[in-house]
Amino acid sequence: MKNLKSIIQVLAFVLITSVTTTAHAGEPTGLFVNLTTNDTKAANKAIMFAHKIALKRGHSPVAIWLNVNGIHLADEMSAPPALKAKLISFMKDGGTVIACRMCSKGAGITKKDLIKGIKMGNADMVTGILFNPNVKTLSW
User: Which CATH number covers residue 116?
Assistant: First the structure.
């Protein structure tokens, strides 16, 4: 009986794994980075991971969503210069940076305040990437 239960568990695992890994075979896997902090060390790690580990290795789409305190990284005038340069480089290489519209409003950041290339987010833009079955989410 114990062996039968083990066999059934293994078969269930194999079945679930084969269904989930072949459902979108051949399509690239993307990454959605949820960046909620403007702490320079953490933000640097998040941007570098999105750029060097995901985007440069061919994953697509790769997006960084700046929200909560991370929204301050989108501000042309107040973003730390090194992080601003990294966001610009990431976007030049094909990455997408999205500013949370509600967080922007709360922080007093307008669309004209954004670093060139950063998109002011909306529900369709964010959920279109976030709920894509070929995109994984990572948070900082």
Answer: 3.40.1260.10
Q: Give the list of residues 6+ apart from residue 7 with CB closer than 8 angstroms, or none.
A: none
Total structural domains within the chain = 1
Residue 15 has pLDDT above 50, yes or no: no
The whole-model pTM stands at 0.82
Give pLDDT, residue 6. Answer: 57
Domain limits for position 38: 29-139
CA distances from 117 to 5, 23, 60, 127 (A): 55, 33, 18, 19
Output the CA angle 57-74-66, nearest 5 degrees. 60
* β-bridge partners, 39: none
The 3-state DSSP class for residue 132 equals coil
